[in-house]
Amino acid sequence: MARLRKSQKFFSTYQSGPQPWPAPSAANYFSVEPCDLFGNAAPLEVEIGAGKGDFILQRARQTPQRNFLAVELAGSVFQWLSIRIARSGLNNLKAIRADARPVVNLMLPAASVRAFHIYFPDPWPKSRHSRHRLFTPALIAGLARCLEPGGQVFAATDVDWYFEYIGALFAQSGFQATGEPAEGAQRSGFGRRFASEGKPIHGGCFRLGRPLTGVNHDSPLAAADA
Length: 226
Ligand SMILES: C[S@@+](CC[C@H](N)C(=O)[O-])C[C@H]1O[C@@H](n2cnc3c(N)ncnc32)[C@H](O)[C@@H]1O
What we know:
Blueprint: H1 2-13, H2 34-38, E1 44-48, H3 54-62, E2 67-72, H4 75-88, E3 93-97, H5 100-107, E4 113-119, H6 137-146, E5 147-157, H7 160-172, E6 175-177, H8 189-196, E7 202-208, H9 220-225
Parallel strand pairs: 1-2, 1-4, 2-3, 4-5
Antiparallel strand pairs: 5-7, 6-7
Helix pairs in contact: 1-4, 5-6
The structure holds S-adenosylmethionine.
Residues 48-51, 71-74, 77, 99-101, 119-122, 134, 188-191 line the site of S-adenosylmethionine.
């Protein structure tokens, strides 16, 4: 509650800076058009459940030749995220407050995303809550719809059985694990916290169809930049 009050105060005093989220209009209410949003057609990476944006802010700063979209559902978290993006001054990073499921199933254009990053989605371990889990066959179908040919999904969780479940869902939908680590997971807010607590992080990279040859397994994000 204290965190919510703090973020609302912060958000309400931050009215004069540039806004990193798209202005609402009839045209973009049900769609996200990356070229309109960024004013160019650079390759797009999307982080789902970006939290306060530790990973995507760093990645967008280090990769100016690409565009980045942070999708976050929780209102108070989104406020922190959008203010941090506005303060960063980065033109290649935008945020939308939305449930990622309709974003990938409906709102983004087909074959428009070079890479997805999904780090530490809530596992909802109890079976009676499993309907809340982000990863479902429908989400994977949405990711597949949005990915460019050869596009990648980087995913990580601290929960071993959830990673197995995610891997099985990808396999059922025609994705293959490439063997690359989800390097970005080490740089997200939760990833840094889990690493400092010595908790294992289970992650990987998935592509549709045959894995590409010649991938640099030491630096998957560097390979993704090529
Ligand atoms: C455990 S946090 C991880 C945040 C960040 N990825 C990190 O590693 O620090 C999960 C985040 O996913 C967001 N989230 C959960 N379901 C979502 C959905 N359907 N669409 C978008 N974001 C979602 C939550 O609000 C939360 O901020």
